[in-house]
Amino acid sequence: MNQRLFTRLYLGMCTIIAGMLITLFYYFTHKIIESENQAKKVTARVTSQTVLDKIDQSLYACQMNNKAFAYNSLLTEAVVNPQANSRLEEFMNQMMQYQSIYDLLLLCNMEGNVIAVNTKNSQNTPLPSTSLIGSNMYNTDWFRGALKSTTTDDVWHSDLIVDPTVAQLYKSSGQGIAFAVPVRNPEGEMIGVWYTFANWQKTAEKIRKDAETELQKKDPQAQILLYGAHNEKLTAIDHDLFFKKQPELLYQADENALIHQASSDKRNMIAQQATSNGILSNAKNHWKAVTLVSPTKFTLAMCLSGEILQVLLIVLFANSAMVAITYLLIRKNLLQVQYIDTLRDVLEKVARGIIVSIPENLKSNNEIGQISSSVSEMVDSLKTKTLFSDEIAKGNLSVTLTNLCPEDRLGHSLIQMRNQLQKVQEDHTIQLWKTEGLTTISSILRNNQNIKELSGNILSFIIRYLKANQGSLFLVKQQDSQAVLELMACHAFNRNKHSEEPVFILPGQGLTGQAFLEGNTIYLTEIPENYVRITSGLGESTPRILLIVPLKTQNEIKGILEIASFSAILPYEIEFVKAIAENIAATLRDYQITEQMQHLLEESHIKAEQMNAQESSTREMLDQLVVVQEELRRKEMELNNMFTGIDTTFAIIEFDIRGTILNANENFLHLMDYKSNDIKGKHHRLFVDTVYAESEEYSNFWDKLKAGEPNTARFKRYTRTHSAVWLQASYIPLKDATGTLYKIIKLATDVTKESLMELEMQEHTEMIACYEEEMKSTYDELQHRTQQVELYEAKIQSVFEELQKYTRKVSELENKNH
């Protein structure tokens, strides 16, 4: 009987102590795991939101840039006169370097024909893009989307797409986001479309990858996924999953949010998502970022390592020792079984979690009494540790556990666990502090419009958030071809300070200028005397702490942030300032570019208003000029017809004042049997013989032309085959507006046939003259002979008359005879 009682007592004590040990071990272990997983969940949610905020910020800058382009005078000039787009091409190539996220810039007219394109990429390397000039984009989504714009603020944009043109130019996947904005003239009329294509790798994928790389430093299994409005995966480097909808969905009950899972091995990971509310949300493109991190799990290895295992072993050892001592005592004195039964009841209650006190009748000086006292101390100690654990479970990590002996491993383990939880809570508080700061500064960067106001709001927030006393914000500005630091904002004691005169600091001047030259953060705990003094009604004092952080993005310093404080700036606060410095620098750079664009836009508006004011005064002149224009147009047509007729009729050649050939028309080249390249740059003596070219007559011929005297005559010239041709030509010297002779034009017609006929006629004339002389002498001789014949005829006539008289007389005589 006593042996069974002893055995049950022994087993009960072992069970109670082991149960309490296991209960405490599992309780605190799960609390630690739960706290770590909660912190990871917050970190994942903040990471998702931060990635989307950075992407929205980048896309917002793209939208603002495209709004500014709508009224750019270079674009309107290029649309009106496509031949004069060299300045626009230079501007587009410069924009590719300023805005390195772009891959392609296009300008189209209202028919959709491309009239300008960038010829270099963001690295200033030539692109084979000129082949796009003249191609038609009318049926593209972005061109039709821009045509539907009704206001000047409308900017058409796409979701993540693949542009085949960009893919061909860059030999890449061509993934990105397209923007299109209508180009309007000063009257607000749409005259063309401006198209930009932002590289996905630079606008979003790099932001996602950088954040994922940062997470994987602590968690190699961590992953950040991007999803579109239609649940398509937008991780650009994952070409197999690009634009393929994922059927696997994961629901978070506490968030009630839809999260996509890329593979089955991610189902046991902590997943937190955020939804974009930025620029693309206007088109209901609510992008999602999902951050997956590995949870802290309860494993056997965790149970078998650390101080918890040590506590377990110590308690087990103590349990075994107490059971052994109790067993020996009971064996020595069976009369005290009832005390043992009572003590057993107490221990059974303790094993069930009921903390009771040891009855006074057990507290004697014998061995049972000593055991009872030890059990009582143990129960009191467990009661104290239980209360300590309950306070920790309630979140009271400031609770203390006193009166511990150096050998109390359980108590020290509980205190170490509390300290670890305090550190986790402190890290969680710091992380929340950083997250809230990043969220607030992102909101400030998105909502401010003026760079002066933006600088003041940024500085005011940082000073208040760090609980510092004073600060300044300098921005880099070009002054006389030199980079200087201009004071844009100053803040002290919760108020922004304003300076009447601009304050400039040269590179290398003071600590601020030194930080600009070196590009490194400066943190001083002892500020040089009189560097910064703060005056109040209670007197003057010098802050002890100075933090100077360069605002740097893409290895380019955009400004300097200077913070002075009476109290120390903690390391995590310095890391926070460095983290937001790059975002501030990128935003300031975008705002500077936007303000430059707005300034150019305002100038164009002012010029447009001036032109409108002059329009009424010039309208009357235009009406008068219409008549003059009609007359000039008629005369121009007559002149064009005349010039066309001259060019068709005459052989024309142009010389400079030294006689060097500048140009010749087809009639002249055909007449002289030359090609244009054969005679350009050669002297007029090409068309004359050597003897005449070296004669004084030829030299005088050109001297008179140089003096401005025209020369019209018939000239003998020689063709390529050295055949002689005769030209009826006019050499006409031409003068410019200042009266300076600058070239000579020759108008000629081919009179070779006429000249040859004239020479032949001259020869015939000379022969005829000879014939005339011979005929004259013959005529004189004939005339002399004629006179002689006339004399003979007169004599014959007289003889004939006498013969007739004789005949009549004969007839009369015959008649009489009959």
TrEMBL record:
<feature type="transmembrane region" description="Helical">
    <location>
        <begin position="308"/>
        <end position="330"/>
    </location>
</feature>
<dbReference type="Pfam" id="PF13185">
    <property type="entry name" value="GAF_2"/>
</dbReference>
<protein>
    <submittedName>
        <fullName>PAS domain-containing protein</fullName>
    </submittedName>
</protein>
<dbReference type="InterPro" id="IPR000700">
    <property type="entry name" value="PAS-assoc_C"/>
</dbReference>
<dbReference type="InterPro" id="IPR035965">
    <property type="entry name" value="PAS-like_dom_sf"/>
</dbReference>
<keyword id="KW-0547">Nucleotide-binding</keyword>
<keyword id="KW-0472">Membrane</keyword>
<keyword id="KW-0175">Coiled coil</keyword>
<dbReference type="InterPro" id="IPR000014">
    <property type="entry name" value="PAS"/>
</dbReference>
<feature type="coiled-coil region">
    <location>
        <begin position="761"/>
        <end position="816"/>
    </location>
</feature>
<keyword id="KW-0808">Transferase</keyword>
<feature type="transmembrane region" description="Helical">
    <location>
        <begin position="9"/>
        <end position="28"/>
    </location>
</feature>
<dbReference type="InterPro" id="IPR050903">
    <property type="entry name" value="Bact_Chemotaxis_MeTrfase"/>
</dbReference>
<dbReference type="InterPro" id="IPR029151">
    <property type="entry name" value="Sensor-like_sf"/>
</dbReference>
<keyword id="KW-1133">Transmembrane helix</keyword>
<dbReference type="InterPro" id="IPR029016">
    <property type="entry name" value="GAF-like_dom_sf"/>
</dbReference>
<keyword id="KW-0902">Two-component regulatory system</keyword>
<keyword id="KW-0812">Transmembrane</keyword>
<keyword id="KW-0067">ATP-binding</keyword>
<dbReference type="InterPro" id="IPR003018">
    <property type="entry name" value="GAF"/>
</dbReference>
<dbReference type="Pfam" id="PF13426">
    <property type="entry name" value="PAS_9"/>
</dbReference>
<feature type="domain" description="PAC">
    <location>
        <begin position="711"/>
        <end position="763"/>
    </location>
</feature>
<keyword id="KW-0418">Kinase</keyword>
<keyword id="KW-0597">Phosphoprotein</keyword>
